[in-house]
Amino acid sequence: MKKTIDIGLVGAGRIGAVHAATIQRHIPEARIAAIADPRISAATTLADRVAVERVLESPRQIMEDESIDAVLLCSSTETHPELVVEAARAGKQVFCEKPLALEIDEIERCIGATRDAGVLLQVGFNRRFDPDFARLRELVHGGAVGEVHLVRITSRDPEPPPLDYVRSSGGLFVDMMIHDIDMARFLTGREVVEVTTTAGVLVDPAIGEAGDVDTAVTTLRFDDGALCTIDNSRRAVYGYDQRVEVFGSGGMVQNRNRAATATIVTGPEGPTEPPPLHFFMDRYLDAYRAQLEAFVLAVQGGGAPPVGGEDALEATRIAQAARRSHDEARTIPMG
Amino acid sequence: MKKTIDIGLVGAGRIGAVHAATIQRHIPEARIAAIADPRISAATTLADRVAVERVLESPRQIMEDESIDAVLLCSSTETHPELVVEAARAGKQVFCEKPLALEIDEIERCIGATRDAGVLLQVGFNRRFDPDFARLRELVHGGAVGEVHLVRITSRDPEPPPLDYVRSSGGLFVDMMIHDIDMARFLTGREVVEVTTTAGVLVDPAIGEAGDVDTAVTTLRFDDGALCTIDNSRRAVYGYDQRVEVFGSGGMVQNRNRAATATIVTGPEGPTEPPPLHFFMDRYLDAYRAQLEAFVLAVQGGGAPPVGGEDALEATRIAQAARRSHDEARTIPMG
Amino acid sequence: MKKTIDIGLVGAGRIGAVHAATIQRHIPEARIAAIADPRISAATTLADRVAVERVLESPRQIMEDESIDAVLLCSSTETHPELVVEAARAGKQVFCEKPLALEIDEIERCIGATRDAGVLLQVGFNRRFDPDFARLRELVHGGAVGEVHLVRITSRDPEPPPLDYVRSSGGLFVDMMIHDIDMARFLTGREVVEVTTTAGVLVDPAIGEAGDVDTAVTTLRFDDGALCTIDNSRRAVYGYDQRVEVFGSGGMVQNRNRAATATIVTGPEGPTEPPPLHFFMDRYLDAYRAQLEAFVLAVQGGGAPPVGGEDALEATRIAQAARRSHDEARTIPMG
Amino acid sequence: MKKTIDIGLVGAGRIGAVHAATIQRHIPEARIAAIADPRISAATTLADRVAVERVLESPRQIMEDESIDAVLLCSSTETHPELVVEAARAGKQVFCEKPLALEIDEIERCIGATRDAGVLLQVGFNRRFDPDFARLRELVHGGAVGEVHLVRITSRDPEPPPLDYVRSSGGLFVDMMIHDIDMARFLTGREVVEVTTTAGVLVDPAIGEAGDVDTAVTTLRFDDGALCTIDNSRRAVYGYDQRVEVFGSGGMVQNRNRAATATIVTGPEGPTEPPPLHFFMDRYLDAYRAQLEAFVLAVQGGGAPPVGGEDALEATRIAQAARRSHDEARTIPMG
Q: 0.90 exceeded by the pTM?
């Protein structure tokens, strides 16, 4: 394999811009060779900013370019399955943003196509690459808590997404909670056998009118009997709240939220620390870089990516079960 | 009313001893006038230790003594209803340890008897009197979190009780979780309309054989739509873990665990703080005193006690629903 | 020795009231038998509050009362030496508030008189009895930091005392810093061989006009070469700031400030904890009780009190050297 | 000025390698055009690693190359003055590692030469660019503590440098404490008028034999009367300890140490956090980048660098006074 990996970026939106900048600035082993987006001006603006020369209107042009080794799929969710299949057929290594797709059969199609083509499929569960969560997993797997009994995940956004996004993205269950479900599987290394969710609309009635919930508590049971509770909210006024606790027979491990600085101001009211980072891209800056480094490494070495299509499949199945549990007010066994 | 309140203590066990010492040492407005316990040597030992002169074999003798103003019922749970009724008929003010009773009709009988007799009935939900939880409630009611969206309660014992106690006490649901259910009602001032529990036996199979669970996650929905998650474990190796978080539209309030000292040791492995206090009586020392001060104040003033029979009734109904939810793997609506 | 120790309290001011309440409420092995204060109405008020029957105008009456076993000297500093000597001659065990006296020869007179009379002399260095500082000492002596290299003491009052008190009490050096000097000796178990102080008037010019400083940094060198830095301020707007850090070849131990509750409020500005306790009597409540328990125990057992006249002597010598260092802008060797 | 700034790096040692990687990886506006080091193999190795094509044996070749805009001087301290002067004469913009020089007249020569040549002189006080310290300064200057009364700086290395380095570098005073002195000036924006130091050899007698101390407490008085205490140690077993506290009439600001992760492990002994980062290059990674970004920005804009020769001059004068204070056991007035 040649020295530098040439990557075609599909989608010049927010997350595409992050990935492009990361590749260009921080990963010398790869470079963005072309950016494709039907919104050509967005593509051009981004290309200028990150010093990419080729701007394309259609992802097809990327698939057809034999000099391109791999694709980053950062377009909207409903385009993912088709693009993954096309990329696989063209022999490209695939990194696809999450959710890979909203429906199980589409995800299975993605997995099948990449498997058949013998190419990688890595899904953008960036949190696995966060140093704190990676460290927690290492501690759990190293025995720091003994047998896991209980995982507690708090995952609260600083503010709700636009209503259009709520409607098209899969909503709280498949777009937001899916990260936490993946985290639960990642930390424990176990499979989920039961899902129970209680949810509601507390943040903004418009979210309810859009057919979604904005606050949820989900309980998972793993195949070894351990339990996990996930609480989600679409609005935490103090910032992006991302905390995990793993409790077991031998103790407990936790992470703190990350703030912009490690400074404390003590006035007459008491000591105040900076709030958690507000923006998910600030919070997971290191993770975004690390996941692309892992992808590039997998492409170079031909090994398996650290988080693949099967992980997306499983997390989506669980997220869908959570929604059903909420709808039916009962525990859903995972088949 | 005379200056000093004469109290008859029924039950010279562990919690009875705590209450006796608290009254004798720290509440000059009251005194233990007599201790009754069929295990007469236990009663005598305690009486010596806390300088009480009268030791009785039967609680009936306390009920018959007209000089006694109030009773502290610290005998085993199954004796509570009969004793409450007797005390009420004898015109005594009643402080009864939790659980008031295991069955709803018994609790209703206690409430009825004390109401008919015009005497107080205070139930030993000591945690309401803990300075940290009282402060959290004050903050929540003062608007510090805006509208409540989510309450998170972690409540883990340092070690399981004896199996005999597991069998007779009401178990994790009615003996242990009942405190957390009461805390949820106390902090929010709302009523619970739905209960969902997922539980299991992870700490010790013998607890399962005794018909109980040792690990549980419970989700409550309040009548204003807010949610609450409670996680319970019978064994936290690092101590008695009692944490609460209330999250809402305007922010979040939390408490830390309390430790024996506020000291930090930093060696090559990093800074270590002392573990949470291990023993519930150390953790809630202040709360035990404050709840008896409140009782004595209510007796003096003839006002309503801060936590009464109706609170016990409601918490018990919810605890029973939690057990049913676990058994039936579905959400239980509270009628 | 009879069962209950009868104590005569001299001085019905603020600290006298604390000690009286502590004895009467919390130390069943002793009782305040009489209170003497020339301000007879203050004595009477206090006596009523803590249920003491005898009120006297002159401490002499306490000294002459053979039924009294011990005295608590809580009158103003300049009266201490004469009272200690009188009490010793009368065969009373002596607890004297700090500073024992402002001048070295007076302190030596106190030590001599109590030694000659064979009675105890305990000085009110209450901080030694604080659970956190006692724990730090235990850790240091147990080897948690290896060889001590550096002690850092921060000691800041929430607000300056009245100017009259500044003038008569010994000021920042002999009244305030003396506690920190004693803490340095207590924690390390070493003697001070050199003192260097830099100080100034930053809080209030009136303190300077009264002949004192209000902000100071003092460096001590111990006889084993270890160093200690003490920083003092007369006004910390956030409360009573009492922090200690001991650093050595094997690590570091520290204490945190204590707050009224262990609660955290997180709004948009970030997480805020309650400020340190403001009032020294709240901060050192446990310590005040523990030091009197230690005194009563020493009286009962006839052993040496845990902090005696020699400690007062040494701390005063060092405090005076600190003042001289400041005046002469040089390091003062302790003879 | 052309688009990319061409930089000549002098010195391929540890800090030179850090700066080279930073420029090449993270600062697209500049590039390392050549590396000069008489140890040619070191230069070649580094050049390969950071993709620099030209390797030179003598810094003179850099000075003579007209295509080079600026120099980074990372050679040993004693070579700095000559190189600064040569670079200035050649019209290069100058970034020089600290200490700029060990002697005052040499520093003045550097300042004079760069001033005469009209080129920049930035000195590598990297800590000013640390986000936490920059934030503290911003808070202090924004009034968060009111008038500054007291600055406390703790600065402890994880382990002593090699003895050769101790001997040649300026030692604890001029090589290590100089950073803390600069921090004191940076945070307060005030000048130092008095210095008092107490120091000793506690970590390793060999350091004493090499003519240096390894533990020191220094007190500064600023021109507005505020005080500052700096404590230094050459060995903190728990990592690189870099804490600052600024206390004033309105409150206090502090920073925490930074650790590799924000994770907590709670076992039976209590909660443990990761130790402070051990290696100064990890701790100040962001700061190293930010200071070079500032330099590049100053070169581009022709403005003054944020930390210049006058700062080096002042910090060195104070460090020398600290050593004299230690030698003479007295306060040294600056001025």
A: yes
